[in-house]
TrEMBL record:
Residues 274-560 form the Dynamin-type G domain. Residues 1-39, 68-98, 145-216, 489-535 are annotated as: Disordered. This is Dynamin-type G domain-containing protein. PROSITE patterns: G_DYNAMIN_2 (PS51718). It is a multi-pass membrane protein. Residues 82-94, 184-203 have a biased composition (Low complexity). GO terms for cellular component: mitochondrial outer membrane. It comes from the Eukaryota. Residues 1-15 have a biased composition (Basic and acidic residues). GO terms for molecular function: GTP binding; GTPase activity. Residues 503-515 have a biased composition (Gly residues). Gene3D superfamilies: P-loop containing nucleotide triphosphate hydrolases. It comes from Amylocarpus encephaloides. Transmembrane segments: none annotated.
Amino acid sequence: MNQEYDKGKNRRSLDGDSSSSRVNPGRPHYMTVGSGSTSESAARLQAILDNDLGYGGSMTRDGINGSAPAWNPALTEDRLTPSMSPIPSSLSQSELADNDRRAQANAIHQLWYNSHRVALGRSINRAVETLKSLQQMNASWPATYPSVQGAQASQNKSDPRPGLIHTSTGLSNKRRSLPPSPRPGSIRRSQTSIGEDSTSESSKSTEERTVPEPRLISPQIAQEFSILKLDLKLGALHQTELVHSLEKNSIASLLDGKISTSINHLYSLRERIEDTSSKVLVTGDLNAGKSTFCNALLRRKVLPEDQQPCTNIFCEVLDARENGGMEEVHAVHKDSAYNRHDESTYDVFTLRDLEKLVVDNDTYNQCKIYLEDVRSIDESLLNNGVVDISIIDAPGLNSDTTKTTAVFARQEEIDVVVFIVSAANHFTQTAKEFIWAAAAEKAYIFMVVNGYDNIRDKERCQKMILEQVHALSPRTFKESSDLIHFVSSNAIPTAPPPPPPGGNGSGSSSGGGGKGGEDSDGSNPKGKGKDREKIRDFEVLEQSLRRFVLEKRARSKLAPAKTYLLNVLSDVQSLATVNQEVAQSELNRVSEELKALEPILEASKKAKSEVSDDIDRTIEATCKDIYDQIRSNITTSIVQVADEEFLGVPYPGLMSVFQYAEDVKEAMLLDIQASVNACEEFARIKTVSGVSTIKQLGLLHLGDEYTDLSFRSDIMFRRKRDILAKQVGIETEIWDFFDMSTILQRQEKMAGAGMALTVATAVGGRMVGGFGWVDGALGAVKIVGNNNIRTLIIPGTIAVAMVATYYVLSQIPNSLPQRLATKISSQLTEMDYVHTNSSRISAEVRKVLRMPADHLRVGLQRSVEQLGSKREETLKIRGESEVARKYFGNLVNESAKIYNTVEAIDLEGSAPGVAAAYDS
Ligand SMILES: Nc1nc2c(ncn2[C@@H]2O[C@H](COP(=O)(O)OP(=O)(O)OP(=O)(O)O)[C@@H](O)[C@H]2O)c(=O)[nH]1
């Protein structure tokens, strides 16, 4: 923030030539009064001044760690008495002593003034540092901007004045008193309040809960931001509604812009207090008589006056000595920064050309009018012997928006505002707005109620105007006798306009003007009673203005810086207080959130690993169970398939025995297939129950975050149907019909059943069954006898064979299924049918169960990650809030400290030395 300033800048020439005046550019330049040599005490004071150029031991080191920015030594170059002040060579002893006394008094005053200026300069530096740090903080932690409560604001809609008052919190008891106009009483946080901030809010549940109205809304801290007030004039929306409709970051960026503007303004204020000259802006409504007033002050008709609006550009009147004693007009080119030493930035004209220049402003944006004021230093404002003054005549406020804006902007670089108000029209809305804007740094405004001669009921006019001033600028009102004047500027005798170009100008004008100069009509107004009164009123005004600008220079020159500093620091303090509390509640909130979050995160992590293992175990157990169950079921089904009573296939008789075999075979395979289907159904049921178990786990651990997968058990096992019939290919053989083992088994069963067994059956059975038929034959021979046997043997054999054949054939429905079952069973064993199907079904169940299981695992993982990142985010917010709380806590203290330092700079009391200097 250190800024090096051009040491020569703003330093005026004391002898008409700025270069020759620089006797010692690094120290104050005071003229030698009296006999040409200063008295001892004056010399001592001079020495003190030399050593006290803003760094001296007399200053309290309250700067920023003693590292105050570079201070321009030229700032103390105010003249106490101009070198060209006429000092008669033959002064009496008493007059010399008087001069000496005055010089001493001036020196004392200068010391006092310098100390205040330096203190203010340091405070400006500290304020700039503070604002810069606030800007940085605002970038990383968007500051909360309190706004006026909508309801409150609308209650006060009748109040035309924008903004609110500062109430009694923090510094407010020390703040400036403001008009008693009703102001909205409370503020409330903008949409950036806790709970409303979507960016910083890290928990859904927190977002959803109802946030209690922050304490910040309390009317106790209701106050207006005068400097850092966001200017939101968009459409028909009220400022509050706008603030609430804006994003927190948008507000932060608007605030950032305001801070930047304020920093720049502080720089310009520092420059202004360093500048030894004083700029007086004469402004007011259109046609209020600004130019007439300026002319009256100068006692010369320099600026064009007209009944219709005529001043279109700024006209700055300066002492001709600043221009080498030449009276001329420098018309500054548009978009050029004026530099008197660079003629490319302006065109030179004579005073006579002024009228045209002022009205026609297409080429120029302002005029610098160098004028010789021949009045004595006791009377002249320009040539006052104390300080360089420039008087700026501004275009009428309500002439057009651009010019009005320009006047508003211009007042930021001036020290004193002289506001001309028409006695007939009073304060217009634009006038009021200007005064409110000026109040940001100017607690006092010099008010000139002009055209007073036009008013019949003067008392009523005064009363009304004073009432208005009371509301507009209370401090000005408080000192109304000094700061508010009712005059008629056109009644002041002025020297006629300058002679035509060709003459040197200064000589002729000084001849025409001067003290008690004639009016343009040539009459002597001092002779007329009414005019005398007007002139007297004007002279009183002049004295007050001189006192305000010259004697109370600390007030006129330094007070704007002080007022602005107090206002901006107060704004900073309010902002800091609000944000400290916001940061604190944010900190509390996130700490609470963290406290709640930690165990949830831990539980979630634990659940994740436990549930994962659990699911795996459950799936494996389910699948194994299913496998075992299915294996046993299919095996049983295969084993039992032959026992099924012909599986519902009727025996068609011997003629269709092959078809019978095919039907039995198919029935058997279908029966086995049916058992497999039953197993699939069983597995389906088990899967549905498994999926439901996983879902329960998901709901238990993820709650609402668990998303269910749609599961259709009916589409399981679709592809494996009918596979068996295709795979099993069994040929029916002749031996399949005569399965002896089955026949024998059956015979034994039947034998065990009782005596119904016939011999034929027994014999046949034996015969058919094996070699036992020989024994049977021998037994029969013994009974029948050998001869008989011989005759019976053939037919007997035939009979037995027939019986046996019949028996065997009758046993086909019994023996064929057994035989086929055995063959199917062995083929299925060969195919590993039981295992294949059991593992196929259990594998599909595993696959199906894994889907929701994996989904649950992913959900759990995501939940842990989300909780983890929420924790990270919350930790980050906690860290930031902690930093912000500390920062804003410090800012509250720091801004209060600077505020107190600034407030302690007493610019109001009578300046030491002044009385003595101007006494006599
Ligand atoms: N009766 C009366 N007329 C005045 C007074 N002061 C100014 N006038 C007249 O008011 C008219 C406007 O005066 P100006 O000085 O041109 O007003 P202005 O405010 O400079 O006008 P703009 O710069 O164009 O806004 C002129 O005709 C003046 O003679 C006054 O005190 N009494």
